[in-house]
Amino acid sequence: MPLALYDTWSRTLRAFTPIQADHVGLYCCGPTVYDHAHIGNLRTYVFEDVLRRVLALNGYAVRHVVNITDVGHLVSDADEGEDKMEKGSRRTGESAWEIAKRYTAAFMSDWHALNLLEPSVWCRATDHIAEQIDFIDELERNGYTYRTADGVYFDTSKQDDYGFLARLDVAGLQAGKRIAIGEKQRATDFALWKFSPPGTNRQMEWDSPWGRGFPGWHIECSAMSAKYLGPWFDIHCGGEDHIAVHHSNEIAQTQARHGTRLANFWMHGHFLTLDAGKMSKSGGDFVRLQTLIERGIDPLAYRYLCLSAHYRSTLRFSPEALDAAQSALDRLRRTYVQWPEGGMPNLNVVARFKAEVDQDLNLPRALAVLWEVVRSDLPPAVRRATVDHFDAVLGLRLTEWKESTVAIPADIALLGNAREKARALKQWSEADRLRGVLNAAGWHVEDSVSGQVLRPLDTAK
Ligand code: AMP
Ligand code: ZN
């Protein structure tokens, strides 16, 4: 059976064939680095990583591009308010450039902790200002833009099918006009370039044919995806919140410049939610991967939790669900290490696993096949070789696991938390004292960019 993927554009499951034989172009919208990523954001990257691994399982070479939004993402979708980077700068007292650097580094550390494969290209918006200006320039020449006192806008009335991806009711939005639209002519129009406010100096601003300012958020993805993958490539991904605005606008821009809808498949991961509702950066109330690590949870247990829900269903986060994922992973690891190497995989089971992941990445069912193998009476060496095959998709690093890296005991985690708090309050001598207590208890403390990491002294490097 061929690989079938759900395409948001057509709202159907479609058989996947690449535009160029054996080669797949994959673009994934990356983080806005004005704050830490939360575990909801990371769920989307886990889904994209699994997609990439399933494409590889099908024999495709994947060119995977991920952007880093370090400028131009405004606080409101109505193109009003501050740039999130400048706002973050006001919050922390660091420069916008320092903020971008710090949160990018923290993001990379989460990325690696979750065993996400390194993209072929990481691209930063601030490194591609010239490409974005060229793009806007071409849109202007093609007659898709207008200027206001505060910027250059995309005129969505020029496209009859604007918003098709989201099945947007454009007329209804315009008639309702419940959102503030400032100087825009229509609710759906969006900023391509914003002018620096007169009399103020922004930390991040550039000269352009229209005046000094900064790019709108959507243009970076149209410009950078075209640069690295061409204007018509295979798959574009992101979280479900991007369908209505960000991806609709990326498509509008690319259609206006290149005449394509960017990608042959549009795929969207559904949200991780809390009891209180969706987890969002702007809400401020969110859980970081590092917080879980400090509570003694292995980041790969969070990865396991993500695998246990289909990417197109909402995953409700709870400490109990996470503990269950940690227990399942521990059980899997402890069983796996007892199996000898040197066997051959059971091809029948390997094919069943592949059939599940090929059916729009049905990881919950693929995990069920895994547990069947664990509990089966297949020879242990065969079970190991079969599960190794699965782990190329699951990414749980089973072969690398050692017992001593399993879990941080609760009392050690509490000491670690106390030390983190002391550091946050700049109580350095208390933080040093707690480091001494942790060392005496056999734990090494390392302060990484994304926070503190605890390791047993015998495994600490
Ligand atoms: P951001 O850094 O806010 O631009 O978001 C990075 C990625 O995370 C995007 O693909 C978003 O669609 C996605 N995302 C945002 N919130 C959530 C959530 N609660 N659950 C899953 N994905 C999310
Ligand atoms: Zn994007």
Automatic annotation (TrEMBL):
Binding annotation for Zn(2+): C29, C221, H246, E250
Gene3D superfamilies tied to this protein: Cysteine-tRNA ligase, C-terminal anti-codon recognition domain (1.20.120.1910), HUPs (3.40.50.620)
The tRNA synthetases class I catalytic domain, residue ranges: 16-326
Principal location: cytoplasm
'KMSKS' region (motif): residue ranges: 278-282
Cofactor(s) annotated in UniProt: Zn(2+)
Enzyme class of the recorded protein, top EC level: ligase
Record key words, sorted: Aminoacyl-tRNA synthetase, ATP-binding, Cytoplasm, Ligase, Metal-binding, Nucleotide-binding, Protein biosynthesis, Zinc
GO molecular-function term, one example from the UniProt record: zinc ion binding
Residues that, per the record, bind ATP: K281
Chain location of the short sequence motif 'HIGH' region per the record: 31-41
Membrane-spanning intervals of the chain: none
Its EC number(s): 6.1.1.16
Record's subunit section: Monomer.
Family: Belongs to the class-I aminoacyl-tRNA synthetase family.
Listed NCBIfam families: cysS (TIGR00435)
Official protein name in the record: Cysteine--tRNA ligase
Gene that encodes the chain: cysS_2
